[in-house]
Amino acid sequence: MNVYGKKxxxxxxxxxxxxxxxxxxxxxxxxxALIQPSANTRAAAFLTITPITWNVIGLxxxxxxxxxxxxxxxxxxxxxGDTAAAxxxxxxxxxxxxxxxxxxxxxxxxxxxxxxxxxxxDFYFNxxxxxxxxxxxxxxxxxxxxxxxxxxxxxxxxxxxxxxxxLELTTAIDIGTISGPTTVAVGGTYTFIVQNASSPDLEQLxxxxxxxNNILRIKQVASTYTTPAxxxxxxxxxxxxxxxxxxxxxxxxxxxxxxCIGPPNYTGGQVGGTVETTYxxxxxxxxxxxxxxxxxxxxxxxxxFEYQTGTSADQLVVTAINAIxxxxxxxTGTPPTxxxTGTPPTxxxTGTPPTxxxTGTPPTxxRxxTGTPPTxxxTGTVKPSPGLSxxxxxxxxxxxxxxxxxxxxxxxxxxxxxxTTIITSVFATYFGVAASSTKGTAxxxxxxxxxxxxxxxxxxxxxxxxxxxLRVNSTATTNVTLSTNATVVGTYxxxxxxxxxxxxxxxxxxxxxxxxxxxxxxxxxxxxxxxxLILGAALLAVMGLAALGYSAWAKSHNPEWAAWFLSTGLIxxxxxVAFGLAAWGLSAYATAKNRxxxxxxxxxxxxxxxxxxxxPQDAGDTWLPGDATLExxxxxxxxxxxxxxxxxxxPQDKPPDxxxxxxxxxxxxxxxxVVKYVPYDGLTWLIGGLKQEVAWMGNTSWPGLGSNxxxxxxxxxRAGGDGPFRNLADLMVGDEVTIYTDQNVYSYRVxxxxxxxxxxxxxxxxxxxxxxxxxxxxxxxxSQKIYLNRLxxxxxxxxxxxxxxxxxxx
Length: 810
Hints:
Layout: H1 2-35, E1 47-51, E2 56-60, E3 70-79, E4 85-95, E5 102-104, E6 109-115, E7 120-129, E8 139-147, E9 154-155, E10 160-169, E11 177-179, E12 183-185, E13 189-202, E14 204-209, E15 216-227, E16 231-233, E17 237-239, E18 271-283, E19 287-291, E20 293-299, E21 304-309, E22 316-321, E23 331-332, E24 377-378, E25 386-393, E26 396-397, E27 402-411, E28 417-424, E29 431-437, E30 441-445, E31 450-458, E32 463-472, E33 480-484, E34 486-492, E35 495-500, E36 504-508, H2 531-557, H3 559-594, E37 663-666, E38 671-678, E39 694-697, E40 708-712, E41 736-740, E42 744-757, E43 771-781, E44 786-802
Parallel strand pairs: 2-10, 10-21, 12-22, 26-36, 38-39, 40-43
Antiparallel strand pairs: 1-3, 3-7, 4-6, 4-8, 5-7, 8-9, 8-10, 11-13, 13-18, 14-17, 14-20, 15-16, 15-18, 19-22, 20-21, 23-24, 25-27, 27-32, 28-31, 28-34, 29-32, 30-31, 33-36, 34-35, 37-38, 37-41, 39-40, 41-42, 42-44, 43-44
Helix pairs in contact: 1-2, 2-3
C-alpha cells in the first residue's frame, strides 16, 4: 500500500508538474501572440470631416421668383488612417427647430464605395429656399455626418446654421459660360469649367453650378481668382475675411452675418476679378439636366449680398445615358435576285442520238443577268473620330506640391482608331514627372521632357485616360504661369489623323509660406506595445508566489512536494521578473522616442545657462538633401538684428528687454530646448539644419517688445525621429509655456489652437498684446508626401520675472 501510495503521489506530482508546465507554455504563447500582431492591428481607416460651404443663402430681394433658390451645402471627408475606408456614407441631418422655408431637395444620403489612404472627397447636398418673402431672416440648424465600414461617425459642428438673406441682382458680375460634354455615361467621371466669370472684389464669394446630386455629383472643385493675384481655392466658397458661422440665435438684422472675424485668408480681405472654376463630377444615373451657373457674395462697400445667375444663352444641357452607343453601318435597300430572260427549249430527239464528238474544251454556259446589283449604301462615314480633353488640378502649387494632369482620348467615331499615340507638350524643368495610362505604356523622355503613350487600337466609344503627376521642385524660385496641351495621332487605312487639345494654364508659385517643419509622417508612437508583457509578468508572479507559498506549506505536510514547488516557484518568479524588465525597457524606450527633448530633473531652474543648454541629437537626425537643394548639417548661427523700438522710454522707465529668445520650456509636453534665431529670405524662413532646436522666426517680435513672437519647431525629422513640437497638438487651453531671454523669464498661457494653410502669414502678424505663436506641420498627405497645413498654438503673456543664472550666485 505504501509503495502504491508513493507511486500515486509521484504520478500525481508529475501530472501536476505537466499541467503547470503546459500553463506556462500557453501563457508564453499567449504573450507572444498578443505582442506580435500589435504593429499590424494599428492599420485602420480614420475619417475627418470639415465644412466647406458658406451658410448664407437667399432669394432675390425684389422678386423672389427670380434668381437662385437652391444652394449646395457640403463637407469634405478625408481618410487620415493607414488603410482604405470602405462603404463611405455621408448624411445631411437637420437639428434644432424645424423651418418650412428651408428644406433639402434631392437625397439626404450620399455614398462612395471607398476612400483611399490620404484621399478626400466632397459631399454636397442641395438645400432649397421656399420662394416667399416670409423666408427672409429665417434660419435652420444642421450638421453633416460621415461614416464607413467598421468606423464610428464623424460630424461637422452641430450649431452651424443656414440663414436666408435678400440678394441684390447686379450687372457688375459677368456670369461667363459653361463648357463640358453634352453627353455623359453613368459610372463615368467628367469635367465642367466655368470661365470668364468676373465680379467686383467681394469679402465673400461663391461660384457654383447646381448639379442635381441624384444624377451628377460633385467630387472636386478648384477655382482661381485674379484678386488677389494668383489666389486659388478648392471649395465653392471663398472666404476672404473670416466669416462667422456660429451665430445661435442670430442677432437681429442687419448685423447678422455682416461682420468679418478675421484673420483674412487673402491679402486685403477681398477676392474676385476673373474667376475660373473647374468641377469634376461623377455620373450617378440617367437624365437630362440643364446646368446654370450662379455667382454671388457679400460686398461690404454696398453693403449688400449681390448675385448674378446665367441665362439660357449661358446654360449647358447635358444628357446622362447608361452607355455611349457605338454606331453600326446601315445598309439601304435589298440587292435584287438576278432575273433570267426567256425559257431554254427542250430538245427533241429522233432515233438514236449520235455520240457527240468533242473537239476542244466544251464552253461553260453563262447565265444572263438583267440589271446590275446595287452596291450597299452606308449612312454616315465609317471612320474613327478622336476626341481629346485635358484638365489640371489644382491650378496653382508651390515647392514639393503636385499638379495632376488628366488627358482623355476618346474614339467618338464608328471605326477603330489604329496606331493611336498620345503626346504631351514639353514640361518645364520645374517639375519631376510621373505618368500612367489606362491603355498602353506612358513614357516620360527626360531629354525632350514629353510624355508619350502608345495606346495602339482604340475602339469606337473607348476612352484612354492618361494621368500625369507634376511635382514642383526646388528650381522654382519665382512665380511663373505655364501652359500645356496634348496631341493624339493615329491611322485608319490610308487616313492619317491628328487632334490637338486646348491649352490648360497653371501657376507655379513661390510666394511666402510658413516654414516647413515636418519630415516623415507623424505616425503615433507605439507606446502600448509593452502592456501584454506587464500582464504576463503579473500572472507569472502570482503563480510563482503561489508555488513558493505551497512549498512552505508542503515542508510540514508533504516534504517530497516541497522541493519541486520551490524550484517551480523560483522559475516562475524569475520569468515574471524578466517579463517585467522587458516591459519597463519597452516603456522607457517608447517614452524616450515620444519625448526626445525631455527636460532635466528639477525643471528649468536646474539649467545653469539657458544659452548654453542644447539637447544631444539622435543618430538618425541627419537631414537628407531634397531635390537639388542641400540642407546644412546643423542650423547656422545667424546674426540677430537690432530691433526698432517704437516707443522711447522715459528717464524713469526701465529700458525694454531687447535680448533674444534663447530657450523654451513646455512642462506638459516635457519640452526644454534651445531657441535660435532664423532670418526670413523673402519667401520663407531659413530653418535648414533645424532639428531639436526651436526657430525664432525673423520679422516677428522680441519677447520683451510686447507683440507677437513666432516660434517654429519640427513635428518629425526627415531621417526619422520626433521633433520638439511632436506633441504640440496635445497642448490644452491654460497650459504653460515659458520663454527665456538673457534678461527675463516670460510665462504664457495657451489660448487657442487652429490649423491653417502654409501660406497664411496672418498668424504671425503683429499683435496688440504680447503673445507667442507656436508653429509646426500637420495633416500629412501620403500621396504628395508633404504636410498640407500648419498647426498653430497661440499663448498670451501672464507673467515676467527677471532671469537669475544659478551659476552666477549672488
